[in-house]
Amino acid sequence: MSFRRDGVFACVALLGTVLAASSFAREAADRVVCDSKGKVANLNFTLKDMNGQDVALSAYKGHVILLDFWATWCGPCKIEIPGFVDLYTRYEPQGFVVLGVSIDDTIAKLKPFATQFKMNYPVLVGRGRDDLQDAFGPLLGYPTSFLISRDGKICTQHTGLAPKEQFEREIQSLM
Q1: Cα 139 to Cα 119: distance, rounded to the nearest angstrom
Q2: Contact 62, 95 (CB under 8 A)
Q3: How far apart are CA 152 and CA 157, in angstroms?
Q4: Which of 73, 106, 115, 143 could form a disulfide with 77 if both were Cys (CB 3.0 to 4.6 A apart)?
């Protein structure tokens, strides 16, 4: 009887250790840390926004930047955009910006798309700007998003659909 009870206690203790380690690992994964080897983002680009105005990416140095490469035909991009609208609304006063770089359309086509999706952040024209994509690429799919710290380091990259909650945790850790 004692042997059986000791076995049960050992299993419970092991389970507790595994759960604690799992929780610690999950919390650590939620923290975004840009180490000293992190690639510095090249923000030396000027693009047109959907209103035809020049926008220098370097003007956002010192901000936490979510640089999102997307396309109007991309289903996962359309799913992510409402989350970016919400995140921009909530964190912009704290120095956060979303820069949406459309890789496929002209200004004339971007305006109605941005209106339909209520895009409240800068929408930039990346069509024909292979130099910008090459600076962050190769981009293997869309959407591809980069989270850039205030000191200009690329901290995370997401290729494909990522949940808003994941972006929010990462943004909060950099604010």
Answers
A1: 23
A2: yes
A3: 14
A4: 143
Check if the beta carbon of residue 166 is closer than 8 Å to that of residue 155: no
108 CB contacts (<8 Å, ≥6 apart)? none
How many other C-beta atoms lie within 10 A of the C-beta of residue 161? 15
Task: Give me 175's structure tokens.
Answer: 């604010």
Residue type at 79?
A: I
Would you state the pLDDT for residue 37? 54
Q: How far apart are CA 59 and CA 54, in angstroms?
A: 11
Please tell me the distance from the alpha carbon of residue 6 to that of residue 8, in angstroms, as a whole number: 5
Give the span between the Cα atoms of 160 and 129, in whole angstroms: 20
- 166 burial (CB, 10 Å; 0-12 / 13-18 / 19+) is middle
The amino acid sitting at 155 is C
Taking residue 98's Cβ as centre, other Cβ atoms within 10 Å add up to 26
**Distance from the Cα of residue 48 to its chain's centroid:** 21
Reported as a single tens digit per residue, the pLDDT across 99-140 is 999 999 888 889 999 999 999 999 999 998 888 878 887 788
The amino acid sitting at 103 is: I
